[in-house]
Amino acid sequence: MLPDSEIDLEDEFTHIFRSTVGLALVQTSGQNIDRLVTIYRACLKTGRELVVDLYTAMILEATRNPKIPQSHWNRMALCIPSRQRIQIKKSGWFEALGRHSSRRLYLNRDIAKDPGKYLLIFCGLWMGDLDRAGCLDGACLIHSQWEGYLRETRFKEIDVWRKRHNIRFHQVHNREVCKVPVLNNDEPLDTELSDLHFLVQYLVTRYQRAQQLYDDQQLI
Fold first, then answer.
1. Any bridge partners for residue 77, and if so which?
2. How far is it, in rounded angstroms, from Cα 139 to Cα 116?
3. pLDDT tens for residues 45-96?
4. How many angstroms separate the CA atoms of 107 and 166, rounded?
5. CATH number of 6-214
6. Of 18, 8, 5, 10, which is closest to residue 140 (Cα–Cα)?
7. Do 191 and 182 meet the contact criterion of CB atoms below 8 Å apart?
8. 163-183 pLDDT, tens per residue?
9. Tens digit of pLDDT for each residue in 96-116?
10. CA–CA distance, 179 with 155 (Å, rounded to integer)
């Protein structure tokens, strides 16, 4: 049975992090602010460091909420996959990179030395880098999105990669199906968004919910 709340999910994440000796990989949307809050809380409980890429760091920054975890916080860190570094150079995102680099880590130099200290917000971009770093012994992969996504080609490719490395798999998600209204009042969309206008609407909704979660639990 799927858990009902982010508090239930926090308990599940905490249990999995504690029972995983290696790197914990969590596959979730960088736009799902309340889920990132939940994961951060579980990291605080288990002594892991939450590692995000630049895109996720910028999403967290865009909430403009001092209670939402940021890349410069304790137990937070930035790490950039190779393909994202190419995009940063191509798009000239150097100012954004500078803002989020105070706690920057490198996969080979830092994370690979002691993978069990870290939790990485994972997507397919990371597979090649993780292969080259050789830091997947004892790792786990937690899918924290709608289970139906696992039937899509991109997730099947990740599952093949996961099995090749003998990475344990967990599904940690709640009952909620989050929908976001589109601008033309058509049917709502799921949370996997690419359009900036939809993303802004989504962030407002998730920001409000994440703020309530922090206030209720008095994390700060």
1. 51
2. 8
3. 999 999 999 999 999 999 999 999 999 999 999 999 999 999 999 999 999 9
4. 20
5. 3.40.50.10710
6. 18
7. no
8. 999 999 999 987 654 444 333
9. 999 999 999 999 999 999 999
10. 21
Give the Cα separation of 56 and 62 in Å (integer).
10
Query: At residue 209, does pLDDT exceed 70?
Result: no
Angstrom distance (rounded) from CA 121 to CA 52: 6
State pLDDT tens for residues 137-170: 999 999 999 888 888 888 999 999 999 999 999 9
Own/partner long-range contacts of 144-151 (Cβ < 8 Å, ≥24 apart): 144/9, 144/26, 144/27, 144/28, 144/32, 144/35, 144/39, 144/171, 144/172, 144/173, 145/27, 145/28, 145/29, 145/32, 145/173, 145/191, 145/192, 146/173, 146/177, 146/190, 147/171, 147/173, 149/192
Residue ranges of the domains in the chain? Answer: 6-214
Residue 193 pLDDT more than 90? Answer: no
pTM of the model: 0.79
Asked whether the beta carbons of 59 and 83 are under 8 A apart, the reply is no
Where residue 178 falls (left for φ over 0; alpha for ψ -120 to 50; beta otherwise) is beta
CA nearest neighbour of 115 among 124, 105, 125: 105
Under 8 Å between Cβ of 13 and 42: yes
